[in-house]
Amino acid sequence: MAATSLSLAGFKGIRGDILVALRKEQPLTNKALAKQFGLTENALRRHLTELLDAGLVIYHREIRGQGAPVFAYSLSEAGEALFPRAYLDPLVDALESLREREGTEAVVRLFRRRWDTMAEAARPRLAALPLHERAQLLAEMLAAEGYMTEAVSELGLGTTIKHHNCAVRDIALRFPEVCSAEAEFIESVLGAPVERLTHLKDGCGTCAYGAPISLQPGIKGAATPAPETPR
Fold first, then answer.
1. What's phi and psi for 59, nearest 5 deg?
2. What is the pLDDT along the chain (231 residues), one digit of tens a residue?
3. Number of structural domains, the chain?
4. Which of the listed residues 80, 105, 133 is the one where a domain comes to its end?
5. 196 plus 96 within the same structural domain
6. Cβ distance 150 to 1 under 8 Å?
């Protein structure tokens, strides 16, 4: 699994780690977070209280089984805003203008060209690698673009690419069609068809793409070796 390094200004150490943990998987209970970081529930609760007071975390009560209700914690809008967003308001305005002039497909083409450029640059070093190694390098490439991406490969089940943060979230909410260009980029780099499993814009905790283990052709655009002549 590719680790993602993320610096949150003003929130280092355990509080920063809690914010990242919630971005990756939310909601989480105090007990689950305490277990994840090797702390007592009381010690972890003090950090959560600071994040609640800062307006970065919210909670709600959940009924789990027959026990007493528990508090489940998630990021607030302010907490979500701490994570990278590869856009500016003027960019959104420019995309709106482009859509008005030339239609939504023109916006998609704009994103597709950028993804195509990245895929073309990556092909030489990815062409000879097996699927799981291509997936790890893909996760690193996307992490450098502001996504919190990891590649999870399971024996016999294939590879899953997961975004825990979308670097263009607000753009994707306004122009959901651009997500198709992202999916095409992932297929191009992996050299295998992928299926979207979850989508952040639909309220899921991640954007996830699955590539079955049986679908492992070579990188698109890579040279195909000539067949051997029978002897």
1. -145, 160
2. 333 334 455 566 899 899 989 988 888 999 999 999 999 999 999 999 989 988 889 988 887 767 778 889 998 888 887 776 655 567 788 888 999 999 989 999 999 998 998 888 888 888 888 888 889 989 888 887 878 889 988 766 688 999 988 878 878 888 888 899 999 999 998 888 999 999 988 888 889 999 876 544 444 444 333 333 333
3. 2
4. 80
5. yes
6. yes
Q: State yes or no: cis peptide before 69, omega within 30 of 0.
A: no
Report d(CA 218, CA 123) in Å as an integer. Answer: 10
Instruction: Tell me: do 206 and 166 sit in the same domain.
Output: yes
* Tokens standing for residue 75: 């990021």
Which stretches of the chain are assigned E, i.e. beta strand?
28-29, 57-62, 70-75, 149-154, 158-163, 195-198, 207-211
Q: pTM for this structure? A: 0.61
- CA dist 23 and 11 (Å) reads 14
Using DSSP, state whether 106 is helix, strand or coil. helix
Asked if residue 180 and residue 201 are part of one domain, the reply reads: yes
Token code pair at residue 159:
């590879």
Domain region containing 29: 13-80
Domain boundary among 33, 50, 80: 80
Note whether residue 42 is domain-resident: yes
